[in-house]
Amino acid sequence: MKYPAPNYLVLYILSGTLAITTTLVYGLHRALKLAGWPVRERKRAVWKVGVLLATWFFAALLPSWFGFYRGALNRIPTIQYGLLIPIMAGIALFWWWGTLKRALEAVPMQWIVSVQAYRALGVIFLILYAGGHLAGEFAWPAGAGDVTVGLLAPAVGLAYAHGSRRAAGLVRAWNLFGIGDLIVAVTMGLLTSPSPLQRLAFGAPNELIGAFPLVMVPVFLVPLSVLLHLASLKKLRPAETEQQVHALLASKRS
Which residue stretches of 108-166 are H helix? Predict the structure, then answer.
């Protein structure tokens, strides 16, 4: 097992993360513009969300850079802090931050779904496994699951945009599959990394997932993906209710 990270990994992870963040901010700007938000209000909302994402990015980057999340056989893992705290904070913002709630209502469902095409970048886990840098017990489920979710994202978003009768169920199934994939990946990461919780890959422990730059995946991209899934599911509930009302009215007219 080759423990040092390959040279290309820093560029791959950081450029990919920045591209994803930029796409989210630009997509929000476009959605609010299409929704008819006043220019000043739109700029203020986009600026606030952009600052929030940038702050979160650097809050994840700095401890990653200084090795806070590195695993050790004699120490309880710390990576769960970088994973769970952003998710809990994001859920709280969904409920209590009025600007974010209104912005979520304005962003089309198909955009929230399709943007997770970036999950296909999880192919990096399989590339690292092929190069002898990651344990197969982690790389295969994490890589294959992410690629599947990412490739399905645009198709599911397109189906919803076209108003397919089964689109709502398809979106829900895709979201649950995507969340399940992340749970499996995180679990396998914990079970294969050096810590008292390690149960697999003792001959080739998964040291790379807790080291910079790959650790940016579980402490930034995984929470971001979970929150996007939750936002999609939250938005799906009133959309389904509206569809049911329209269907009921249509049946009464006929």
Answer: 109-114, 123-130, 136-161
